[in-house]
Amino acid sequence: MNYNWNWGIFFQPNPMGTGTYLDMLLSGLALTLKTAALAWVIALITGSIVGVMRTLPSKGANWFGFAYVEFFRNMPLLVQLFLWFFVLPEILPRAAGLWLKQLPNAPFWTAAIGVGFFMSARVAVQLQAGISSLPRGQKMAATALGLTTVQGYRYVLLPMAFRIILPPLTSEFLNTIKNTAVAITIGLLELTGQARSMQEFSFQVFEAFTAATILYLLVNAVVVTAMRFLERWVAIPGYITGK
Amino acid sequence: MIEISHVNKWYSPTFQVLTDCTTNVTKGEVVVVCGPSGSGKSTLIKCVNALEPFQSGDILVDGTKVNDPKTNLPKLRSRVGMVFQHFELFPHLKIIDNLCLAQEKVLGRGHDKAQAKGMQLLERVGLKEQAQKFPAQLSGGQQQRVAIARALAMDPIVMLFDEPTSALDPEMVSEVLDVMVDLAREGMTMMVVTHEMGFARKVANRVIFMDRGEIVEDAAKDDFFGKPRSDRAQKFLSKILSH
């Protein structure tokens, strides 16, 4: 293989005039983090709502939760992004579609929302499992004390369910960060996108993707460590959660 | 205080758990419900505060119809204390917070007032020192005493006990029964599902014997232990009193 290694490439100016190649990658990293953060917020909020709906006694809520989860988890993420980005503006009324297409940062919003909804189906299933794993008597005890359904979930069921699913939620958070890389296909210049452009401008493919790999690993190591601290922080004295 | 009339409950069209149950508990009365496992006694007591729905018949608690859709169930339940077989303390809350939660969220008591009431009741069940601990750090007997205190904190007009000692190690049964005996002697209206015939002898006014979803015997304590009228009750008693 005839390849000219050049680790100094990161400190050379990039052709965009935005500083060095390293600056380029770091701006991609920043966009990855922003996209992942927004997507995770969307995933947690909608996923929690849908997950709770799947455990309610109401048949309608169950059905909605079921349909939502199956819709968002049974389609490839890439297809979902294309649907949001290319198809949705066309099937909306003309004015609304036009507004969507002209939205500044359209790839960013599409990626955050697309990845967010995709991940929310997974959060919903996790939370449903967490709630179902609690003894049936917990809900009964809350009800018997006069707590309403909402209060029962808010003060009794959810605090325990979220503690139980914290380890798998960590994985889902990591998946959210990694899944933002798919947004390269709709033109979002996140970390993978910037590594790709660096390769195209400089032909230093190994350096570019080595750097991207290390940056992803670092970010996820930080997340894992932070979640470990969170787990320890919310741990209940004397209570063993499967460990 | 509790009027149960002609209650029928089916789990499925072919599986009837309660058949035409009729009885009542008057103010200040202690009624023990016993019977072989699967006889429907736990189901019946859970119907009283509408934790379990039933298909026909009526239950009135303090004049309020439990099975009326217009009844404010959370409000009714907040006045009916319930103690479960598996304690069902909320594991993520300190003992004192277990006692305060429903006082504050359901009755709208201020935090200080709820705390004072909670501490007073913990002292009464002999667990004042454990107030800052978590449920998992207490023994089963201690947890069940906390559960009784938690129910009492709501100033209930009647207390329901669903096999309160059957999940306990033998040496912890008496500490829980002692609390219940004290409560009975103070004039609390109580409906108690239990196999503790010693408790029944000591404080019950009436004993109800259930078998296969039916109330087979409903007699004053002395009549029940003196000479049960039905064969099934006699057989049951001979089995549990033989040792």
Quick take:
The complex is a heterodimer of chains A (243) and B (243). Chain A is an all-alpha fold and 243 residues long.
What do these coordinates show?
The complex is a heterodimer of chains A (243) and B (243). Chain A is mainly alpha-helical. Chain A has a single domain, classed as MetI-like (MetI-like fold, Orthogonal Bundle), CATH 1.10.3720. Chain A contains ten helices and no strands. In chain A, helix 1 runs antiparallel to helix 2 (59-73) and helix 6 (136-144) runs antiparallel to helix 7 (149-164). The mean pLDDT of chain A is 93. In chain B, 38% of the residues lie in helices and 25% in strands. Chain B contains nine helices and ten strands. The radius of gyration of chain B is 18 Å and the shape is globular. Chain B starts with a strand and ends with a helix. Chains A and B meet through helix 6 and helix 7 of A and helix 2 and helix 3 of B. Chain A: It comes from Bradyrhizobium yuanmingense.
Give me the number of helical elements of chain A.
10
Measure the end-to-end span of chain A: 49 Å
Shape of chain A: flat
Strand content of chain A: under 5%
**How many individual helices of chain B?**
9
Structural class of chain A: mainly alpha
Cα distance spanning the termini of chain B: 35 Å
Rg of chain B is 18 Å
- Please outline the major beta sheet of chain A: none
Mean pLDDT of chain A: 93
Transmembrane segments (chain A): 24-51, 63-86, 106-125, 145-166, 208-230
Domain ABC transmembrane type-1 (chain A): 29-227
Membrane topology (chain A): Multi-pass membrane protein
Family (chain A): Belongs to the binding-protein-dependent transport system permease family. HisMQ subfamily.
